[in-house]
């Protein structure tokens, strides 16, 4: 491609989408940021950037969003609590699956070379995780409606890729966390939630004995993984890839690290980490170990996670401390 690529980011105002958009804005590309709510164009953007507000559950809106795009990053997810699919799957299916269906129909009808579509999936789409690092070869049998919807969307993309309508890549993400200067939306995940609780002086609660492990990846490393997919598509098209650090951290140790980091940053005593009875809304994946083997993706692209857990926690603590304190009217 002799001209600069035209890239559309769907879900650009979201948690991962805003970080991916911020990183892409530093490249000499033509960039369209698409979301239901307003996106902020980075003031130091190198890219030629436009931000558009579009309802992506409208197929005509999807067509406008990706018009002329050579590359589409599909990072749009339903808004609100991620447990909503378990309670009301019909409310989230139009976003989590419907957008992908509309996207591949629109792109299949376009003349010329098939565009690249990079999708944000989840490593828990496989269902019960094995007692060894997942490398992407495991069979899929999702346990939750959230993961079933992610898998359905991914299957729609892969079928379109096999048919030559698009060049599809799915990145299945491990636990993502962190707030950065690129974050356009708050991190609602467990690690940053615990950081906020510690900053408020509240105890950190676990639904187990703390030995459950997670692969916890800093959000800017995840953003760089999407850019790595953009840079190395030929090695990746047609399948899904596991994205993580390759480190399995016990959640009890993670929460204690959070308490220590917040104490170091504020000079206040460490908050306690305690075990409590799980709520009724807990799902099976809350209690499963998640190991990631990122070597296949790293070998194909050269990507590796750069930010260690403690550094990512320290960065997030600092970012949250910089946020303005809410004021109340007497």
Automatic annotation (TrEMBL):
InterPro entries reported for this sequence: Epimerase_deHydtase, Lipid_A_modif_metabolic_enz, NAD(P)-bd_dom_sf
Domain of life: Bacteria
Pfam families assigned to the protein according to its UniProt record, in alphabetical order: Epimerase
Residues annotated as domain NAD-dependent epimerase/dehydratase: 7-244
PANTHER family in the cross-refs: BIFUNCTIONAL POLYMYXIN RESISTANCE PROTEIN ARNA (PTHR43245)
Listed name of the protein: NAD-dependent epimerase/dehydratase
Protein species of origin: Lentzea tibetensis
Lineage: Bacteria, Bacillati, Actinomycetota, Actinomycetes, Pseudonocardiales
């Amino acid at each position: 491609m002799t001209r600069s690529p035209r890239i559309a980011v769907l879900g650009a105002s979201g948690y991962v989408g805003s970080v991916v958009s911020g990183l892409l804005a530093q490249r000499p590309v033509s960039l369209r940021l698409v979301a239901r709510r307003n996106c902020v164009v980075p003031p130091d953007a190198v890219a030629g950037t436009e931000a558009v507000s579009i309802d992506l559950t409208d197929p005509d809106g999807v067509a406008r969003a990706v018009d002329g795009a050579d590359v589409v990053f599909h990072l749009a997810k339903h808004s609100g609590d991620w447990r909503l699919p378990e309670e009301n799957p019909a409310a989230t299916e139009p976003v989590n699956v419907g957008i992908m269906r509309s996207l591949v129909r629109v792109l299949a009808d376009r003349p010329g070379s098939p565009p690249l579509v990079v999708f944000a999936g989840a490593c828990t789409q496989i269902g019960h995780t094995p007692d060894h690092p997942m490398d992407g070869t495991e069979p899929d049998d999702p346990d939750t409606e959230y993961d079933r919807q992610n898998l359905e969307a991914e299957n729609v993309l892969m079928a379109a890729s096999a048919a030559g309508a698009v060049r599809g890549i799915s990145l299945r993400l491990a636990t993502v966390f962190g707030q950065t200067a690129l974050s356009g939306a708050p991190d609602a995940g467990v690690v940053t939630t615990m950081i906020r609780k510690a900053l408020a002086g509240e105890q950190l609660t676990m639904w187990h004995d703390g030995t459950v492990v997670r692969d916890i990846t800093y959000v800017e490393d995840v953003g760089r993984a999407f850019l790595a997919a953009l840079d190395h598509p030929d090695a990746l098209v047609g399948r899904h890839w596991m994205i993580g650090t390759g480190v399995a951290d016990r959640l009890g140790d993670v929460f204690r690290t959070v308490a220590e980091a917040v104490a170091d940053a504020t000079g206040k005593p460490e908050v306690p980490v305690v075990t409590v009875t799980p709520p009724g809304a807990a799902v099976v994946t809350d209690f499963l170990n998640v190991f990631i083997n990122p070597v296949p993706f790293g070998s194909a692209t050269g990507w590796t996670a750069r930010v260690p857990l403690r550094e990512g926690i320290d960065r997030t603590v600092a970012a949250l401390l910089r946020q303005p304190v809410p004021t109340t009217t007497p």
